[in-house]
Amino acid sequence: MKSLLFSRFLLLLPWVLIVIIVLDIDSSRAPLPALAPRGGGGGGGSGSGGARPAAGRAAAPRRPEAALPTIYAITPTYSRPVQKAELTRLANTFRQVARLHWILVEDAAARSDLVSRFVAGAGLPCTHLHVPTPRRYKRPGLPRATEQRNAGLAWLRQRHQHLPPPQPGVLFFADDDNTYSLELFQEMRTTRKVSVWPVGLVGGRRYERPVVENGKVVGWYTGWRADRPFAIDMAGFAVSLQVILSHPKAVFKRRGSQPGMQESDFLKQITTVEELEPKANNCTKVLVWHTRTEKVNLANEPKYHLDTVSIEV
Ligand code: UDP
Ligand code: MN
User: Fold this and answer.
1) pLDDT tens track for 218-263
2) C-alpha span between 91 and 140 (Å, rounded)
């Protein structure tokens, strides 16, 4: 009787072992929920650009960040009581834009401590340059920030001259006092040569915009000097890195440049009106505003004793 039981046990044993092994293989194939937080993510790691909030990008199709053209934003800036406040607002916007490289150009003979400290803590890729505007050009009515924008262009060209097939990139000029929506960066990122869009609160009107017919720019809606070849504000266009590199001599001019003609003088060197790519729903949406910050009232500053500590504002 005992030997019968034993022989049955031996007969069943391999089958029991097979069932256990099959069950084990099956369970090890099951997903590991705790270790797989990203659904559908590809194998490559994400960029090293640090944590970026995903706000405003939820609906966009997910592209790996590495495939996006870099946006280079050239910002001229100069010392004044509101400077740090302006730069703070700008950095808060730029920090939410993927693959944005900030080229901050101080209108100064040397890098200031304030801007250097600010850049160090800004939390986004930033190149800090400086060039002073010659005194003779610091007069009302004369174009501002010519030398600073040219310094940004020179840096960009120098950086890419040793990289034969240039990385895809888009350049735009971001004054430190304007207001930029995040949607604007999505629009400009697809610039092939030169793209344009409306600008709010400029030219003595609620907005200026390129007039578009059948997908092409055919004129300008503006309140000021409609005879300009490109009646557009500095905040109203972007240029591909390719175009910047293939027109190495294109710069902002001092000599021969009339007030308000900086944009036209520059754009004439690199494109034609026919070639412009309208963005922002055929130039019917305002995504950037030419805001200007009120001059601060510091009338009481000299009237009283200064604070005992020195505080950066
Ligand atoms: N800017 C500068 N140096 C100056 C005046 C202005 O670098 O002496 C910068 C300023 O910080 C801004 C840009 O040039 O980023 C355009 O200046 P502003 O905003 O005063 O011009 P507007 O609003 O009249 O176009
Ligand atoms: Mn301004």
Assistant:
1) 999 999 999 999 999 999 999 999 999 999 999 999 988 887 899 9
2) 28
- The reply to whether 183 belongs to the active site is no
CA of 213 to the centre of ligand 2 (A): 30
- CA 150 / ligand 1 centre spacing (Å): 14
Selecting among 65, 263, 274, 294, the annotated active-site residue is: 263
Is the separation of the CB atoms in 146 and 262 below 8 Å? yes
Q: Whose CA is nearest to atom 12 of ligand 1?
A: 175
Please identify every residue whose CB atom is under 5 Å from ligand 2, which is an ion: 175, 177
Which residue segments constitute the domains of the chain, with CATH numbers given?
A: 65-196+233-279 (3.90.550.10)
Give residue 67's pLDDT band: very low, low, confident or very high (50, 70, 90).
confident
Q: What is the pLDDT of residue 259?
A: 76
C-alpha of residue 134 to centroid of ligand 2, in Å: 20
**pLDDT over 90 at 105, yes or no:** yes
User: What residues are paired with 205 via a beta bridge?
Assistant: 202
The yes-or-no verdict on residue 15 having pLDDT over 70 is no
- Going by the DSSP 8-state scheme, the letter that residue 236 receives in this structure is G
In this prediction, residue 162 carries a pLDDT of: 73
Please work out whether the CB of residue 208 comes within 6 Å of at least one atom of ligand 1: no
Cα 181 to Cα 57, 63, 76, 92, 184: the distances in Å are 13, 21, 19, 11, 6
